[in-house]
Amino acid sequence: MTKPRLRDLGIRLGQIPAGPLNAITDVAGISVGVTTIIRDQPHAARSGVTAIWPSADIFTDFVPAGFHSFNGNGEMTGTIWLAEQGLLASPICITNTHAVGVVRDAIVRLAAKRSIEMAWHLPVTAETWDGWLSDAENFPVTADDAIAALESAAGGRVPEGNVGGGTGMVCHEFKGGTGTASRRLPKDQGGWTVGALVQANYGMRNLLRCGHAPVGLEITDEVVAVPERTRRKNPQGPKTDQGSIIVILATDAPLIPIQCQRLARRATTGLAWVGGFGSNSSGDIFLAFSTGNKVPMKTPMANLGMLGMDECTPLFQAAAEATEEAIWNAMIAAETMTGWQGRIVNAIPHDLLKQAVARYARRED
């Protein structure tokens, strides 16, 4: 069953048109896979893995990439080598905080299984913490889970909400998770596509915005409050100043590594439009890559294209808009979840969201 998205509620954000799928997979060649873990025995698990393949041959034909740490209370493996060579040489995985090593090693296992000639691998795996809803210290994610996500990856529609690495996430005190969106520039600006995929697990409700509407102030405390039995067990509720967001941006525009790094920074703007500001305890880490250039592993010389610097400006806007809508798509698709120790996180009520946005809609004369 297809889950609802922001546009299904009649709400549109931004000015640049979306791609046909409004997903990161609108960038040709990208595929996404998920493994979702929801069980109560032997321990409560609300977790998983999300895998992103920039291309089917990423282990042998590398692509330019760059990353940005808006606030660094988090982890994204492989970034030291990425900063050094500017090339992404593996699929990307996102999971929970305590599974980063397991999932990172699974990518290496998969490369070995496929007999990739490269003698060593430093793959990218990122995380956000799902320990409010999942008994994270019982380590539910395995290498087999990661490989299943990697090997099931496909193009087309991307699963959203309580899936993959986003299964146990909380966003602005509502249920968060995995979300995606895209923007496609008009032909006179190059016709390039920018896609975003987020794992959203951050934020305070009072700062949540949708367009012009201060949604988090419009939706009252009673709506987000957890039942009395949960408050008795966990009187503080979710730690609203803790959490993180991972943003993966992809484009088919021909960029070199420093331009990818600049593109990655623009996820900050989309995050801010929704209400994120990078609290001390938040791991807000963004990575961007370009499929418009490829560098074969064994080539002695690679010829790369480079988009003009002024021509990057529309891409920057597209990255900000796609990030903003991807966060909202994660929240709209997410469903109320009960997890570890009976803790409950409510999904954002679609009807109240629509009412709040309507109250602040621009009125035409």
Structural class, from helix and strand content? Answer: alpha+beta
Number of strands: 15
CATH class: Alpha Beta
End-to-end gap: 40 Å
Oligomer: single chain
CATH architecture classification: 4-Layer Sandwich
Question: What key attributes describe this structure?
Answer:
L-amino peptidase D-ALA esterase/amidase, 10 helices, four-stranded mixed beta sheet, alpha+beta, seven-stranded mixed beta sheet, 365 residues
List the helices and strands and how they pair.
Layout: E1 31-39, E2 45-53, E3 61-72, H1 79-85, E4 87-88, E5 92-96, H2 100-113, E6 124-128, H3 143-151, E7 170-171, E8 174-175, E9 177-184, E10 193-201, H4 215-218, H5 221-224, H6 228-233, E11 242-251, H7 257-265, H8 267-274, E12 281-290, E13 295-296, H9 312-333, E14 337-338, E15 344-345, H10 350-359
Helix pairs in contact: 2-3, 7-9, 8-9
